[in-house]
Amino acid sequence: MPPAFRVGLSHDLYSSSAQTSWGDIELASLEDAGVSWEFLPADDGTLSAAAVTGYDAILFAAPGVTAETVSGPSTPQLFARFGVGLDSVDLPACSAAGAAVTITPDGAKRAVATAALALILAVEHRLIDKHRLVEQGRWQDKQQLMGRGLTGKTVGTIGLGNVALELFGLLAPFYTVNLASDPRRRLSGVITDGVELVDLPDVLARCDILVITAALTDETRHLIGAQALSSMKSDAILVNVARGPIVDTDALVRALAAGELAGAGLDVFESEPLPSDHPLIGMENVVLSPHALAWTEEMARGNGASAIRSILAVRDRVRPTYLANPDVLGHERFRDFRLP
Description:
Layout: E1 6-9, H1 28-32, E2 36-39, H2 49-52, E3 57-60, E4 78-81, H3 91-97, E5 100-102, H4 105-124, H5 127-135, E6 154-158, H6 162-170, E7 177-181, E8 191-192, E9 195-197, H7 200-206, E10 209-212, H8 226-230, E11 237-240, H9 249-257, E12 263-266, E13 286-288, H10 297-315
Parallel strand pairs: 1-2, 1-3, 3-4, 4-5, 6-7, 6-10, 7-9, 10-11, 11-12, 12-13
Antiparallel strand pairs: 8-9
Helix pairs in contact: 4-6, 4-10
């Protein structure tokens, strides 16, 4: 019989009152496949080599994976990220150590796209401002808070991956004009999946609603800064459900305060948690969420199921679908892997 396949779950997924801190993440499918799992001990924000040694795969959410993590004598063959962000994962170090890294874009896309739509509607309808009117008993002032409809608006995204395409699908009943600028796609003017690919200045100048869905890279860090914001329509809004550092927060605050931008919906920030005295807090027509708007049962099950599919693929020596470091396939540990 082949040796047992062992899976460790990062401690941030631990819960004393539920299956995990995210509830049901489809761990039953691991058990049904005969794979044992257990929670790792508490960490300091980074997975240590000592903690992961001896496991075949690690299913992790919050902690980082560094060169030290994969420096042990028995490095796991797979680090299955519960999510899509890889800001704190050293992919080259993982590849060099023969550790595959996978993400779960299929599990996260609907939940993140729905979160983006929720922020769009909340800002356009001035939901928070109207909530405050009720709290303050100022019903007589409601006519001063006219909202805006979404139908026929031009929606632009920075990034045209799974989340953006899912969002455009959700927007179909609103008959929006769909634009996207993607650093990885250079075919400006091409129509794909009902979305017109344009360059960054074009999407900034034309959109009524700008949604950030791109990954954080050296190329996208502070991509939306003072110059980009100044080129947008003064009645446009900005929504960010990707990573905070893609937007220059100080520049955004200045644009909102000066009336150069009509509003913003933010689920992510350059510094998290956002300081309680930050100027974004309390601004009119700004909707804020603590990097958690997409955290739903739907996302938990979707991310879990996707990560577990990757784990079972590696156990069965099949190339996992959402491999973040495909160069690892050149490592001797993966030479006999087959295509799915």
